Amino acid sequence: MEIPETAAWVGSAVCAECHGAEAEAWRGSDHDRAMQEPDAESVLGDFEDARFEEAGTTWSFVRYQGKYLIKSEGRESGEYEVAYTFGADPLQQYLIAFPDGRLQALHVAWDTRPAAAGGQRWFSLHDAPPTVGDPLHWQSAAGNWNLLCGDCHSTGFRKGFDLAERTYASHWEEVDVGCEACHGAGGAHARWAAGGAGRGGPQLRVDYPAPTRWERADGAPIAHAASGAVSPDTEIDTCAPCHSRRTRLVDAAGPEQDFLDGYRPALLEPGLYHDDGQIADEVFVWGSYVQSKMYAAGVRCSDCHDPHSTGLRAEGNALCGNCHDPAVFDTRDHHHHAGDTPASQCTACHMPSRTYMQIDARGDHRFSIPRPEQSAALGTPSACDGCHADAAPGWAAEQLIAWRSGGEERTHFGRRLAMRHQEGAEAARALEALIDDRSAPAIARAAAFVGLATPSPERARAAAASPDALVRLAAASASDALPALERAAALAPLLSDPRHAVRIEAARALIDVPAELLTPDQRAARRREIEAFRAAQDARADEPGSHVQLASLHLRENRDGPAAEAAFRTALRVGPYFLPASLGLADLLGQLDRDDEGRDVLEAALERAPEIPDLHLALGMLHVRQGRQGDALAAFEAAREQAPQDPRVLYVLAVALHSQDRSDAALDLLREGLEAHPDNSALLSTLATMGRDLGAYEDALAAVDRLIALHPGNPQLESLRADIQSRAEGAP
């Protein structure tokens, strides 16, 4: 096949001419079927006048003159033509084209599993389908293929978003995940190969190292990489962009880039992961895998998965048996369950699954040891619960202790990382111990740094000098509270970090550091990386969060209120549902003495999301600034209705009650809050001072004593205690 001289991309059909075996394995794979044009082979759903009923809407699916049509009647009405199929296993969605260039993924999907497994049916991805206008509705942001899906379900994707018109002109080189998605644009390589000039011509843009040779020494239960094995990171960095929770930093990131040069990955953030690293939200694979001992040992994705067929290299325990001696591990002495049962599978205990999209069960790639003791202590899921949900509390922990013959549970970072939810010196010591523990995975150490309430200058400098890029990234992103001099000393070296994600995060953190605290080279680097940071936000201009980032940059860089206001308002035009934009704009308007406009912003947001306590809190604080104490109290009480145990809500409501001469109610509220949050400093300090002033000395002393225990050596607290004690002794 003749390849045009100017062609950078050639498509998988050209690659197949020389790489037939790989192409044959790829055909029909999940990558091949990631997205396809609709036809009799690619469309798996029933379009023979099938119907599906949900919440007042009837969906019908028909095939007419070669087209696949979907019609809705009732609460939601419309008629749509399927533009593309989306995925294949265990479900298939259908993309609908809209005039503004969006492709939206319909939430009614086809269950492709066999009928015996409950499949071959239409079903909804939502338990209660959102209404039109809700950000979770299929026509809104949550279903926007261009925004969320295109760069991982096609090859050579360009978003093509026009911010002024809010339209898309998206483009891809190949409709599915083809050869060049992982190997890079192959035009030069294909022209060289077609020319028959022999070896030595231009190779593909990504050079994958040869597979690692795994060896098991005589008597060793687990294989180890042969000497001279190369790092698996080139391969893992290729898989990571589509198999991770991450933010894109450049307009077009290719497989030739290191992961952190094109993306900023999510760390073990609450809500995304449990404190022990287990998956919670839909985070895919990378963040779990880099916690594993397999990653630390050099195991790469292709050791278990065929990269072309995407299938496993062996089935069941035979796959694990490639490295883990079956005579040791595939035995009842190890797994303690009857052989050849689901419970005897390695994945049952070491890869517990979580189900997303109603039917898509995904295994946790931490390959962790079950820790029911830790799960009970932290309130995290236990692998044992999948089969023993009805067992008595503590039963699984007792079983594992018995299996260990009374031995101690192996240490794990989960207990220490969970201390990020606590306050005081003990919590800080636990997190700092995790940061210093080089045996812990880098992603956990990075999360521990972010979890510190206030990192010390010494701690920030050490993290910024870490050999682990994720720890350096955490240092750059979570050191904003340091004074300018200490921040410059810790983070300025990161302006020349090897990884793009670290450099631009350091520049953001240093944006308001006085120029005289940086060297001329560092000032130049800061200017360069700030522009790169802005470019990263521009690459995500269809995401409201990018404009909130720009607003923050305007405020920190030169206190440019008009530019920040414009950025916040752009964020709300792009995503009216994005609450940080409403909160940020209202706060800025308050600083500009324009609280009346800020109230309009908050009230509009509350119309869309009355269940969000932060909006009620912000409105209450606005009322306080305007002297409307009664309205403020009503707003704070509304916040409590939505979040009855939120300590921030209880704190501001108690202060508001006290200001309205309802001090007894305020004290009762503080006592109630401390029952649920015994170490919350805001509640404790408020009870200490309010109790002192109101003569509730017993409460005040108990509160200040707890504060001193949390923050030993604090002279202000010692002085407060002496004052309370003196008043108590002088009381009649």
Which residues sit in consecutive blocks of at least 5 with pLDDT less than 50? none
Q: How many E-type strands?
A: 17
The quaternary structure here is single chain
Estimate the helix proportion, in percent. Answer: 40-55%
Radius of gyration (CA) equals 29 Å
Fraction of residues in β-strands: 5-15%
- Mean pLDDT value: 94
Distance between the termini: 101 Å
Helical region count?
A: 35
Q: Can you summarize the main beta sheet?
A: 9 strands, antiparallel
Which structural category fits the helices and strands?
Answer: alpha+beta
Choose one word for the global shape: globular
Can you give a write-up of this model?
By secondary structure, this protein is an alpha+beta fold. The protein is 44% helix and 10% strand. The chain has 35 helices and 17 strands. The strands form 5 sheets. Strands 1, 2, 3, 4, 5, 6, 7, 8 and 9 form a 9-stranded antiparallel beta sheet that branches. It has a two-stranded antiparallel ribbon with strand order 10-11. A hairpin with a 2-residue loop joins strand 3 and strand 4 (67-74). Helix 24 runs antiparallel to helix 25 (544-558), helix 31 (647-659) packs antiparallel against helix 32 and helix 33 packs antiparallel against helix 34 (697-710). It is globular, with a radius of gyration of 29 Å.
